[in-house]
Amino acid sequence: MLFRVLPLIALFGIACAPPSAGAEPRNKPAKGKAQPTTHTKTPNLAGASISSATATRVKKIWEAAAGGSGRAVALSSKLGRVAFVSRESIELFDLATGKSIASVNKCRDAVHAGAAFIGGDLVVVCEKSVFSFDAKKLTPKTPPSLNTSRVTAASIVGTRLVIGHRDGVIRIYALDAPATAPTEIRIPGPPIDVKSLALTRDGKRLAAAWVQGSIWWWDISKPSESHDLVRHESESDALAFNDDGSLLAEEGSQNETTLWALTPSSSEKAKVRNGNWVKRIAFTRDGKWLVRGGSDGLELAEIGGPKRVALDTRSPVEDLALDELGSSLAAVDRDGRLTVWAVR
User: Fold this and answer.
1) Looking only at Cα atoms, what is the longest distance across the chain?
2) 137: number of Cβ within 10 Å
3) pLDDT profile of the chain (344 residues), mean per 10
4) Where are the domains of the chain?
5) How far apart (Å, rounded) are the C-alpha atoms in residues 310 and 292?
6) What is d(CA 171, CA 199) in angstroms, rounded to the nearest whole number?
7) Could you give the angle at the alpha carbon of 282 between the alpha carbons of 338 and 300, nearest 5°?
8) Considering only the top CATH level, what class is 3-18+31-343?
């Protein structure tokens, strides 16, 4: 059975429909121009976590047409901020009201999924550098230093910045200890672009997908020992670990997200159907549902069953982010739209 939640639906209403039915017509914003934010009222976002018990009650809180095309998004309920990152600009929004606070045009060629709030700062990864800003008004701060090799993929977990460099080395930078040399992990074979990265919350395991379809993982304590996971005919755009690091989700198979238990003889645990492609995956905090953004838009998908909650199908989603407690969700799409969701 298909569960579908339409944007701004009444809190008691869940409509069962095909993924394409009922979608709002696209209203593509002018590139580079901020459009009015729409929201119903100032919400209390300190609610329940998105989980198996609340998945069908996730509602859109507000929407903003920031312009351009979304590349990355960051969300912090603690700071009350949401950051929209396009290829060349960064815009900061107030989480409670959807009001635009500040914007800068510092970044050139922002890296997909390369944005996060760390402490009181916003960190944004671009192809040749990393930028750091105060999270209140985007005041520039001293950025961390990176290796000079071009950035091809990024992941930020806690205070760890994981970068796939064009020289074939993955480097893990400690943002809370900038003087510390990064941990280096070399991709097997000749130097080539890393497509996507994932690090466990405790920083003990890393997974990487290569542009030619291979996926590997490592125990960080043994960086020279790579483990082959799977080889796909096409590249994998999205990798994600669950909260305790026991499962890895990856979308390299055609129209499927595969979940793996990582051991020396890694085993497949589940498959969850998806659209043509997925750009970003996250687990809900209870580990029972996936949040996915991709060709089908933004959705929630049950891992152990057939349920699927389609949140927004108007445009392909490039990135998504959950807040510190997994209770608020933000997504950016290719039409420059930023949406924020929470359990209601």
Assistant:
1) 55
2) 10
3) 36 35 38 46 68 96 93 97 94 97 92 96 95 95 90 95 94 92 90 89 95 89 93 85 95 91 88 94 97 97 94 97 97 97 96
4) 3-18+31-343
5) 10
6) 12
7) 75
8) mainly beta
